[in-house]
Specification:
35% of the residues lie in helices and 16% in strands. The radius of gyration is 29 Å and the shape is elongated. The N and C termini lie far apart (123 Å). The protein has 331 residues and is an alpha/beta fold. The protein contains eleven helices and nine strands.
Length: 331
């Protein structure tokens, strides 16, 4: 005969001899909430089973977002249960990540150059390799600075296709005397860039303009440095990109038949807006450096060079405008 269960709060069953018979304590009808660590492990397994290569990292970042903390905060809460609303929110984010949505869009932010930036599906998600473009731009400014007078001279910088404003904001933060113009063809992207500039505390030196490349600029305006991370994926290759990348705006990815359409469109206008001795620096895709260099040379630029990222990929192509010769006239 099976043992009877003692009702919650009731007495133990007494045998015929009067002795108390040991019985199991009745469990509460509602299971105890599982811990943050248990949910994290389950989410990691779920994402890994669906081919997410960064399953553990993504699971941690998503849980940190739900808990309004950082990844260290998640570790500090490992033994704590999640509230039902936190469980529901976490499950939804993990489900969407497994379906291919980028983590940056799910949590609404991505860090670039140690600056937190708001991102939405209206803008390209900033990549770590694009920080090389910031490094090279700072390098040419530093070289030019050695020839400048002791008092800092405001540098005019142009960011074409700014998206989230990542390049413009990073350069404005690093160069406190620089005046930056950030251009994007998408009004929604421009609004995000402007909001990010305000959050980063550089809105007074970053002007956001809506327009196609240099078309909206005053033809007489000249810049010391122009940077751009244009779309460079060949159209035929878009379908082969991961679901995560395909979730980003196609206008920021599609580089036309050979991936070089954006360079042909932007370089002539950019070259025309360079001050004498100014620099144009652009990010390029794998195997595109030589072809883009040829486009820069055809636009009249010189001193063309390209620079590799940490993976050894030629990622940034740079060129300079000729310095106007000064002719001494005898009087």
């Amino acid at each position: 005969m099976s043992a009877e269960r003692t009702p919650p709060g009731g007495a133990a069953r007494t045998g015929s001899s009067g002795d108390r018979t040991p019985t199991a304590r009745v469990a509460d009808a509602t299971p105890a909430p599982r811990t943050a660590l248990a949910y994290l492990r389950r989410a990691t397994e779920f994402l890994a089973a669906r081919g997410v290569g960064t399953a553990r990292l993504d699971a941690e970042v998503l849980l940190a977002s739900v808990l309004a903390t950082d990844r260290i905060g998640v570790y500090l809460r490992f033994d704590q249960p999640l509230a039902p609303r936190e469980v529901d929110a976490y499950r939804e984010l993990v489900r969407r990540r497994a379906a291919g949505e980028p983590v940056a869009y799910l949590i609404g932010s991505r860090e670039f150059w140690s600056i937190p930036l708001a991102v939405t599906p209206d803008v390209l998600i900033p990549r770590p390799e694009t920080e090389l473009l910031v490094e090279r731009a700072l390098a040419v400014v530093a070289v030019a600075g050695t020839e400048a007078p002791a008092a800092p001279t405001p540098r005019r910088i142009l960011d074409l296709g700014t998206g989230s404003g990542a390049l413009a904001i990073a350069l404005a933060r690093e160069l406190p005397h620089a005046l930056v113009t950030a251009v994007d063809v998408s009004p929604r992207a421009a609004a995000i860039a402007a909001a990010n500039a305000r959050r980063a505390g550089v809105a007074d030196r970053v002007e956001v303009v809506v327009g196609s490349w240099t078309a909206a600029l005053d033809p007489a305006t000249r810049f010391d440095v122009i940077v751009s991370n244009p779309p460079y994926v060949p159209t035929a290759e878009l379908a082969a990109l991961s679901a995560e990348v395909r979730a980003e705006p196609v206008v920021a990815l599609d580089g036309g038949d050979d991936g070089l359409a954006a360079y042909r469109a932007l370089v002539p206008g950019a070259a025309a807006h360079l001050a004498p001795g100014g620099w144009l620096l652009v990010e390029v895709g794998v195997g595109q450096a030589e072809a883009v260099a040829a486009i820069l040379v055809a636009a009249g630029l010189q001193g063309v060079a390209w620079h590799a990222d940490l993976a050894g990929v030629s990622r940034v192509v740079a060129a300079t405008a000729a310095v106007t010769a000064v002719t001494e006239v005898a009087v």
